[in-house]
Amino acid sequence: MNERYDVVIIGGGPAGLAAAIGAREGGARVLVVEREAQLGGILKQCVHDGFGLMRYGEALTGPEYAARDVDRAMGLGADVALCTFVLEAHREQEGFRLVLTSRSGVREVHARSVVLATGCRERTAKQVFIHGDRPSGIFTAGCAQNLVNVQGMLPAKRVVVLGSGDIGLIMARRLTLEGAKVLGVYEARPRPSGLARNIAQCLDDFGIPLHLGTTVTRTFGRDRLEAVEVCKVDERMQPVEGTEQRIGCDGLVVSVGLIPENEVAEQLGVPMCAETHGPIVDQQLQTLVDGVFSAGNCTSVNDLVDYVSETGLRAGRAAALHALRQQGRSLREVRCGNGVASCVPQRIDFGPECGEVTFYLRSDSDYRDVEVLFVSQGEVLARKRLRAVRQAETVRVAADLGQMGNRVYVSIAGSGHVKGEGNG
Amino acid sequence: MRLERLQRELRKLDPRITASERDGCVLLEGEVDDYATVYAAGKLAVDKDRYLGVLNDVRVRGFEQHVVLPELRDDALEGRACDVLVIGGGITGCAIARELRRHQLDVVLVEKGPDVASGQSSRNGGVVHVGINFSKGSQKLAYCVRGNAMYRRLSHDLHVPYENKGQVTFARTPIEMLALEYVHRTALQKGVVRTRVMSRDELREVEPSVPEWSVGGLFMGTGGITCPHLMTIALAENAVENGAEVWLNTAVLGMEVSGGLVRAVRTNRGTIHPKAVVNAAGVYADVVAQMADDRTLTIHPRVGTNLVTDKKAGWMARTGLGKTPFTLTPHQLGELPGDPVSLVKATLASAHSHSKGIALIHTVDGNVLVGPNADEVADREDTSTDRATVEHILANQQEVQPELKASDIIAYFTGVRSPTYEEDFVVRPGIRTRNVFEAAGIQSPGLTAAPAIAVDIAQWVRAYLSEVMEVVPNEAFDPARAYRPRLAELSLEERAQLIRENPDYGEIVCRCEGISRGEILDALRSPLPVPTVDGVKRRVRPGMGRCQGSFCLPQVMRIIAEEIGVPFEDVVKGTEASRIVVGPKK
Question: Where are the domains positioned within chain A?
């Protein structure tokens, strides 16, 4: 089999679905490749609401949010390959060759553009160096969520949650609602990582204690988890001796960060960004490899699905445009200045059609009353005033930069550093 | 050492320890406050010329070895008679069971864990050792060299990955290079072939990751790697294919010995009546030898932790590499006071450590293993990991591979080795009990040595059994394990062909390792199926990758539940008590 598409999208989660919509709207022939039996990605197991507040102005559940995109993409006539896995991805003369496998065999497809929408995975207990025995009962939050919401199982009865990211908070609530006792949420940093609304709705409303500056250091139990050891940490995130405390529990749910999944990107030789751990992209989400686009959480981990969809849509449109009318780029570099931990895009394709560029920033700390400054060749190109910036939340800024040099520096300026709390 | 002198030395160490002679061994007794004293006493008592071995029964106040036993109690084996009972499903026991089936013998293997390779056989670096560091005349050297030479054929027969890319040991100074030259000269006398002293530039041809501080080193061409638990499982499966029985979750609890023979072996599943018994009980080999009234040794547990990197860091080692045992890295040197005496002391201490100096190992799966350390501990079953050890290993090995970062590490594991105080294998027919055969004290290079040990043990067992029964060759013996595809190794055409025959091979369950449903079902339908999450993971790798099973765990559980016909909530991780979920939600 030798099939040709204008745009092949790898991943059928929110980023991939939005890319399919964007690319179909741009008139391209589109194939979405999805590993699982259903489209929607991780949204399928996110039964809580709160999705789509920005995009639709209403709070949808994960499956509801995904269904809207699935309907739209199908309605526009995107092809979908379900239960299909990308074995190989190669560049070729005019585009790309992908080798796919599924129950029906091995097939090759050719694409003018590729959109990577492969999402992210969770950092595991081992990767944050929790030591001790290796019993059952230790789950990443996403895995626990799957067991509860997809498999209909209760993973544990007495649970300690490590990590105050949104998934951790939501799982604390979900497990409580399903009848488990959540003994506490532990967070090594001095401040919670999740959205403020999730702290209120998932912990406070259920009386679940949040222990900041405290982490899980050890697990006990040969067969099934019997207890964990928690410990205070110092400013350098090192456990403080003498503060160890043993907590009896049969479940440990870790929500300690997400890592972009970029195995296909690496096969295609796409250069990566050290800060985001995803591909370096321009404002159209095109990577440094012409014709390869990257959208959603494999590009940089987002807190809101709305941003994921936004980048997907933009990447899809641009991928269609690229497929139908390839053109050269004039790339300018965006560098992180003061206060900025990471920034997407890392490049700007500068040209007459450049216009307004949407940036997704992560700050290195919490700030109040600051400005995001875009500076090139000693001149301020644009400035945006922000009342509050939280390290845990993506800052979305749209700016028209006009003329620029080869480098643009984006920084957070002002004296509004939230005092008394270290830079976690 | 004469007994009186030993007693004097022991009094200095701790007056509560007494020494006496028993059955050709030296017996230590008493109760002390810490394990370090127990270990030191055992070391003091070693006298290979005078004694068969050290029986160190000194106890630590307040410490009781907790023996992990299966919960299962039934009488499935009650009254079972057999020709040979092999105790222990590690690589040694499994290799022996397979080897025994080259003759028409009724072979039963019992393993107390929920799977074979439950102990150190799965918790090691998978190195097929060269043997160069073992002393002449030792069993370790002899079996290592013989076993090494058997590996290519064995891995081919059993379809277990094996790579022979060699091992490299780095020297820091020209003096150390001279020492390596000497090691190289002695290698041939030891039967170790294909070694060569190489300059830094030559080394780079075989191992691109040569540390900055190294001037060159020794290349050992017979060094290799395999997958240790897969090799053990393959040996066990092939033993079963050839008619041996493997009983998991089956622990030996006691023996009836009379008239110089083991008459009966009591287990949690009934009493077995074997004609011959093979002791391959790993960390409990001394306990089992004691049951058989044939003990001449003491196992002193020695733990080692290995770190596993993401495959993306796989380039950091092409071979198995490390510094020479007597090399101090620049960092170690920096920590010394600087006088020549402490330098010599530190060098000797380094040279006498029990780690073979292999720091980074490129595995057959493409990850790099980092470690291991070697610490003497009291507990034979504590395989937990701890922060200090992992950080120490990481810091140490960053001297050899500066590119190594904490974020490259996706997992780590600890194994408990089972050395004797004499630091050699005890592979022999029984001394006081005629129908027991010892394969004890097997630790590194046990993985390498196992196939050769199996040959000798099987031969001794046959010779003994020939006195009491007729032993006939098993013409049907097939050394080749039934082939089961590993998709990652196949070409696209071969993969397509397989999927045409069986679409399950087209359904990828584990995204990190690219493992298909078909491969998981194959493992569940193998001659020795272990329908647990760990059993599947160890056979075909879902959950071994960078997500550590976060994505595929529910799917793997679902496949197991459907295949063996149990509810989802009854699927366990490893042991019976390791259920993964509590039950259906309310």
Answer: 1-121+259-326, 124-256, 330-424
Structure tokens at A241: 């001796």
With a CB cutoff of 8 Å and minimum separation 6, the contacts of B89 are B109, B110, B111, B113, B115, B116, B117, B118, B232, B236, B246, B248
Does B390 contact A102 at a Cβ distance shorter than 8 Å? Answer: no
Domain A330-424: give its CATH code: 2.60.40
Task: Please tell me the predicted confidence (pLDDT) of residue A422.
Answer: 36
Preceding amide of A345 cis, omega within 30:
yes
User: Whole-angstrom Cα distance, residue B177 to residue B215?
Assistant: 8
* The CATH number of domain A124-256 is 3.50.50.60: yes
A101 to chain B: closest CA residue: B506
CATH code of A1-121+259-326, in short, is 3.50.50.60
SS3 at position B388: helix
pLDDT band at B343 (very low <50, low <70, confident <90, very high): confident
User: How far is Cα B253 from Cα B310, in angstroms, rounded to an integer?
Assistant: 41
Residue B315 counted as domain residue = yes
Structural domain that includes position B36:
3-60
Q: How many domains does one find in chain B?
A: 4
> How far apart are the CA of B206 and the nearest CA of chain A, in angstroms?
25
Listed by number, the residues of chain A in 314-373 with a beta carbon closer than 8 Å to a beta carbon of chain B are none
User: What average pLDDT does chain A have?
Assistant: 94
Q: Which helix (H) or strand (E) holds B343?
A: helix B340-351
Task: Report residue B331's pLDDT band, with 50, 70 and 90 as the boundaries.
Answer: confident
Residue of A nearest to B70 (CA): A223
Complex-level ipTM beyond the 0.90 threshold: yes
